[in-house]
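[job 4471] stage=fold_predict status=RUNNING
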Amino acid sequence: HTWSRKARALRIANRNEEALEAVNRALEINPRFGWAWMVKGQILERLGQLERALAAHETAAEIKPGDVHVWYNQAIVLFTLGRWQDALNRLDNALNIDPLHESSWAKRGQVLRAQGQYLQGLNAYNRALELTPNFAWAWNGKGLCLKALGRLDEAFEAFQQAAVYQPDDVWHWYNQAETLVDLGRYKDAMEVAQQAIKVQADHSYSWAKLAQVFRYLERYEDSLKAYDRAIDLNPTYAWAINGKGIVLERLRRFDEAQQAYRQAAELYPDDVWHWYNQGNLLVLQERFQEAITVLERAVKVNSQHARSWARLGNAHRRLGDDKTALVYLDRALKLDPAYAWAWNEKGVAFESAGKLQEALDAYKRAAMNEPENALYWYNQADVLVRLNQFNEALTPLSRSLQA
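[job 4471] inference complete, writing structure tokens
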């Protein structure tokens, strides 16, 4: 027992190698000491030796099968290993032993959330919170389930509760800020992100989120500084590097923006936006052939990305290839029938090909889906004039002036 107590103290002090030596001494003295096997499993988990940690917890379960913790600890390791169904099975064992074990209910919520079973996960988190109302980790997990279900106001309230009960956990503030961004409450999000940074000044995700909020508030210089801080802390943070590119583009620092987008794509090539943003900027710079190469990569990464198909069509149209442009624009509109920009672009391609009635129909669809855009009304009026339908052109022309 002396060695096991020493091991526990060393583990708490995060002196894990020494803790492992101490617990091994305890187990040499008593190989059937179940509690020591549990401690050994926890130490091995901290050391990243997950398979050995699982084996230690399984040995503890053989010795003490009626202890809820031996099953709960296995579930923790199995979750980290991505073996979610096995983790749920162990949690079933734990809850059969002790139906009031709030940590097992909360862990069950986490596993179900990872599987995309958000309602079931929410129910499990709620059960944990019925048992322990001040369980901050469960409140945060509940918020993540609610956010995934699109219940943003409830999610924000859950994250607030998590921060009330555990204000020194940066994620409870970060998750609030992210949800406020989704709600369009940018000034509130700014204040909460700043609070997150006060809690943990080296949290790169909070710096990047603050940068995003500044960008939405059009405070571009502040945004750039915050993105740079996030990237200093985490140089391989592709999301932040891509965000920095967007700000640089807004500041018309195009070469630097393109460099940022390329770096983001190198670090995380599976994110379609890192390719789309490159292609979009190349089109704006009238580097159409280069844009086509990059946008073709974008649609390989995500063939369901309507914007990439539409921008690819736009690049072909700008090179005078209306036929290919229409093929790609149709692909975009099949994916997103309400995509007003693509409808307008289709109208431009038809008009370029001399198909004025088809162009008019496309412009009408663009205006129907985005009536506040003056260009879509103006394009209708322009085609109607070309069709000698002058009276009919007056209404869309008037709408273009009002939009």
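[job 4471] summary: Residues 139 and 162 are 5 Å apart (CA to CA).
[job 4471] exit 0
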